[in-house]
Design brief:
Blueprint lengths: L1 E5 L1 H12 L6 E5 L11 H9 L1 H7 L4 E3 L8 H9 L8 E2 H16 L8 E6 L7 H10 L5 E6 L11
Parallel strand pairs: 1-2, 2-5, 5-6
Antiparallel strand pairs: 3-4
InterPro entries: AB_hydrolase_fold, Hydrolase_4, MAG_DAG_Lipase
Protein name: Serine aminopeptidase S33 domain-containing protein
Organism: Compsopogon caeruleus
């Protein structure tokens, strides 16, 4: 069996792979979110991250941080915003808190990653930090692992024209 996880789905794929590494012949991580954004999505994100536990309890559905705009591929961003199956709202307080907790878990337990995987990331990604992917690959214990940068690509490398 193979599994693919993109962005936040990459977190899920890593957790599944870590829980049952023998179940997977390989996992593809596409722009997987494995660390908090380097700039924490601006000053507002940095401040709110310090209060994430309280906010997630008091106002769990409050939108706390807007999603970055794909200004490198505006036609793809337009499709995303207009897609009735996608949510163009920003990060809500509870989701943000859970994301931060999951990032901490992934960073603290990278050595436990033993499943084979390929980690691909666009070099111009502003949603997740491509350098975080390189660090993840470097610290994972897997013997079959590779980081593949997609030069000039943004967060959704697979949709590049």
């Amino acid at each position: 069996k193979f599994m693919i996880g993109h962005s936040l789905g990459g977190c899920v794929a890593i957790l599944c792979g870590r829980a049952r590494p023998e179940s997977w012949r390989g996992i593809i991580l596409s722009s997987a979110a494995v660390e908090p954004p380097e700039n924490m999505l601006g000053w507002k994100g940095r401040i709110l991250s310090r209060f994430s536990a309280a906010l997630s309890y008091l106002v769990p559905t409050m939108e706390v941080v807007a999603l970055p705009v794909n200004d490198q591929q505006p036609e793809i961003h337009k499709l995303f915003v207009e897609d009735p199956l996608s949510s163009a709202v920003g990060v809500r307080a509870r989701v943000g808190h859970e994301m931060l907790s999951t990032y901490r878990d992934i960073v603290e337990n990278r050595k436990e990653v033993t499943f084979p995987f390929l980690f691909g990331a666009g070099t111009r990604d502003t949603v997740v930090n491509p350098s975080a992917g390189e660090r993840f690959v470097e610290h994972a214990s897997s013997l079959d692992k590779r980081f593949e940068p997609f030069e000039g690509m943004w967060h959704v490398s697979a949709w590049a024209s």
